Amino acid sequence: MAQDHDQHHDDHHEHGSELSEMQLRVRALETVLAEKGYIDPAALDVIIEAYETKVGPHNGARVVAKAWSDPAFRRALLEDGSKAVASLGLMNRVGDHLIAVENTPKLHNMIVCTLCSCYPWEVLGLPPVWYKSAPYRSRAVNDPRGVLADFGVTLPAGTDIRVWDSTAETRFIVLPMRPAGTEGWSEEKLASLVTRDCMIGTGLPKSAKEV
Amino acid sequence: MDGIHDMGGMHGFGKVEPEPNEPVFHAPWEGRTLALNRAMGYTGIWTIDQTRYGIEKLPPDVYLTSSYYRKWEIRLENLIVELGLAGADEIKAGHALRPGKPLKRKLTAADVPNTLSRGSFSRPAKSPARFKAGDRVRTKNIHPQTHTRLPRYAREKVGVVEAIRGCHVFPDTAALGKGDDPQWLYTVLFDGRELWGETSDPSLKVSIEAFEPYLEPA
After folding, report:
1. How many helices (H) and strands (E) does chain A have?
2. Is the pTM of this model over 0.80?
3. ipTM greater than 0.90, yes or no?
């Protein structure tokens, strides 16, 4: 039972109860905090807009496409993720401690946070519900191939699997393998192959035929 | 704390269910809740570890049956009351009944773009790192009643230090509002069989990010 997930479905199905209860509750809390002088509601609007429109996996896709196209950038990314991503100028500022981990024909990487929901927000945006759910957090560390099967992904025989549990402020992004048949593609076209899930390690990039 | 949040390796939660074309927020109040948390965090009144501990302290039944942002909302109310920033009576009334406390700073719309990235958790080290890459280490068998970032499944296990990640704010201390207490941070790699026994996938390796106080030489 995917608790978080089911809960969201409940939100939709029983739109009356929890949805309106939560709307009222959050509105009351915001009013108190604004009247106390702690928060400015206009700032909240800007935060929400940023997460809905500016911060998202399109940033991570640009990073991956650049690493696929530019060997020097790939090396820099694997050496110091924060510094390399900052050099692309995709965002105002990049937080410290971003670590890129590279998939190879022999090794597949997967990212999880078993204790809460740690996730590289700046390059991938806010985490999807499944990433924060009990099924993913419980199983990623002891049954990652089963988790991959839930995503319809089977790794080739002979591929080892490495799971990174994000138990501190270090944040991880998977650098997937560049799909075959993409020689000479522009970075922009390459970025269209890069899905959010392939940067978490629960998916693979799209194939050249899919775009 | 050995709470319900520490889920690594638990059984019985079923399949992972990805949602196609998932929206960023499933209802407007979710976005509002996230933004309220960010704006209150900006005032400097609590650390990120205090907020994580706030979620962990929710009763297990509430934790398991509340959606992610509902947990955030309850946690926010609890922290605000605990720290005396507002009373439960005010939250219930939906209006301030008394003046606010002076806080260090207040997030304005103009400041938001500069606050979207995370700050640095690196801190100057008080002593040299005790371990180096390649060292065999054993995680301690600890069960603090308060916040820790050493998951249960990785306690009393032997692994290898793969990398030193610098000296960072120590969550176990920071969660209690007792300062940064900087400690060295390592990526420690375990064989799947060390964690899960002989039936583990033999091609599996799992790493945690482990603070030095969690480790002893093996």
Report:
1. 12, 4
2. yes
3. yes
